[in-house]
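Review box. Two proteins, two foldings.
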Amino acid sequence: MIYAASLLVLLCLGYAAFILPTRWLKIERVQHRIGLKVNILQISDLHIERLRISPSRLSALIEKEKPDYIFITGDFTKQQESLPKLDAYLRMLSRHRIPTFAVLGNHDYQQRKVIRLIKLLQYYGITLLRNESVQLPGFHLIGIDDYCSGKSNLSKAFEGTRPAEPRIIITHDPNVVLAIQEGYDYLMAGHLHGKQFALPFFYRFRYMGKLPAMGIYRGLHTTDNGTFYISKGIGQTGINMRFLVRSEVTMHYL
């Protein structure tokens, strides 16, 4: 009886420490007022094959928050067999009729045929930005393709934009900020999952670029060229667990 009770306690502790953070969704709220008066929902790192947040739960969140735009900052899935599961989430997003823009991440490029993902995004009306920009009311939205996959082309991405007008950037790997020489007003990225496991010296053992090596792997930061935010992501990569790092979506108030 004692052994059974001890095992139950250990299982409960394990669930609370490693599984609950993947289900206990946190809405981060970032105030960075630059005069646009727009509210943006950022969803990053779905990793749909390991996502424990349901489409209905995300839908209820969107209905409550009523963002002006939805920006998805990469890593939908690296498994083509997971595209049917992703379909349910994209179908849900399309029902809200909120302008949605996206970039690809390193895991997306690990698919054998990333074109299938691209076509699925296009089918549901999601605008995919691959080193290009679009003019939206009051600002340029720039989508920089994935930096760690070698897909970024900064000169092409900024082409046609002007520093005199607000420039908002979405990208996957935040390490690209160290390469950007242009000025920008705000940048949203993901990729690093806020470590996913809040362990000391994590990025000394797993190199993920210069930024995390400097201790910059989540939250709001500023460089000489602009301010950027790194999301902790909503899904998991590798092991489908988190430790002291909750799944996140982010509301940005600009």
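Next protein.
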Amino acid sequence: MRKDALHNRERLLRAARRLFADRGLDVPLEEIARTAGVSIGTLYNRFPTRETLVAAVFEDRVATVAELAEQALAADDAWEGFVAFLTGVCELQAADLGYNEIVARGATTGTDTGYAVMLRIVAQAQERGALRDDVTLEDLAFVLWGIAATVRATFRIAPGAWRRHLALTLDGLRAGSAHPLPAPPLSPDQARAAMNDCP
């Protein structure tokens, strides 16, 4: 890529990152181009679709979630590792409305490998008796979905409210005080379908 083309790409990514973080993923592409100081044609030359732009903007978030997952697996205390992972993902959500929307759609890791690592975090916490045995990864997707709704509703008026929501939820996930659940978990296909229907 030529130097000027690379410069334009970086300007577009900076503008999109800032606007997505403040307003979510539906910011008009024309506004992103204008903020970056380039034409809409330049934006489309670098990023042919909104999806390609979004993927490029949030590459670093995908890498961060993967790092959080590896740290959780390496933690001496499985519960602390599990909590640190969920808290870390929620902190990313709370700082960025665009990423919050991505999490609400169920795409926190972006790869099958990421999904497998999160399964290992759950399995490890369950094997060590920290996490209730009946929790599935789909249950955790709905925890993050719930936090996404809290972040969206309180982003400007009470930006730390999600921490209370998460703390209450984590108490319900502990093995020590578990009671039988009144309904079975969703299957992966059902959870995906539900999140695809999320506004």
